Amino acid sequence: MKFPVQLVCVTCVVIATSLAEFPPKYVEDPLSELPSGHLKAFGYHRLPDGPVAEEKGFLHPKIFWGKYVSIHKPMVFRQAISDSPAILKWTDGYLVETFGDLDLILEVKREDRTKQPQRTNISSFIERYIKEDIYAVTVLPDPMRAEVQVPSCLLCGTFRDFMHETNFWMSSGGTRSVIHYDADENLHCIINGSKDFMMMHNKFRKYLPTFQKKQFTGSGFSSLDPDSVDLLKYPDVAKVQWTYTTLDPGDCIYIPSEYLHQVRSHKRTISATMLFTTDTSKSFQETNCEDASFNYTPLSAIDVHWTYKKGDKTIDMGYINVELLRQNLVDIFHMLGKGFLTVDDFVHVYSLASKDEEDEQSLQKAKELFTKVFEVDIDGKITEEQIKNLPRENLKTLGRGIDAPHGPVLDEEDDDDLDTSHGKDEL
């Protein structure tokens, strides 16, 4: 039994080789002995299957579930967040003046894989991001959530209840991702700039070279160079079908969990992503849908599981949905079949779920976590009812105990730019 950590592939971004056209145009040369698209960018290997399906206007969460989420079908939701104040406000100057003292995680583009995530504040990042090889991908700070609209398709039921993280992405442009997939259901929304997306069903993963995935992570990426696809070395890539779209400010794309995609940006871009999961029964629950007004709603009005505010010691990015964590505990409880959960049971499960070595120190850590999460003595016996009634903050303590933070931990004596040695070499 393990706890599947929910992660976004943040180090899947590299410096882009600009495409002259999008979508790429497939041209077959009957006189050439080489496969069409050989040593060209991904997408020149075959014709696309068309653009990604689109919606515009009001989209009820139940329709969103039935037409797209339940069948893992990507969808572009045009102008889904077009009323967001951020679209007009978030210039570099405004971000510095209004949110400059808030921390974020920045990444170094993947040419240097020895670099670890850094933590800095928005002012420092904006001072550096145009000249340096860096981009921001971080938990959207609480004050900034007030200026981003929630798409109508997330405003009630399971999607609203199970939104567990929102992210802020910012770069100077000229980046592209490798072909990758993420663990979570994801709405990726553009605030400034534009992005090109190529989408591929997960069934085509077998035709792509080496998918790298670390244990206990929910994301993975291919070793294929999407700027120069060697179709002699990897002839099966020609079988990979794809669809495409370009997103502009206000647009969002629904990226199903584990759905393959590749992304390019060409100029300064800012995105907000909303990570959510279906509920633990893999169905849509219409909680509060009958009473929902579907009026303009900012992200600050949503009870997001993992958030960041100024002064937080960690930026809680990439952790599991806390309600899924609760369900994992209930499943373990039933699997044991004893009617209660003891510290020894917990220590055993912790040793499987965490990345810690099984030594005396990690065992002691697990025991302390048991007493802290369940608020009992070391000899306490935990019932199913106690698990079901655990406050979310207790579950977050467990999540942090299982997995290390992504990026440096803030100490009182730390300066704005923290030592990257605290960073987590994970994604």
TrEMBL record:
Residues 397-427 are annotated as: Disordered. Pfam families: Cupin_8 (PF13621). It comes from the Eukaryota. Keywords: Signal. Residues 1-20 form the signal peptide. SMART domains: JmjC. This is Uncharacterized protein. It comes from Paramuricea clavata.
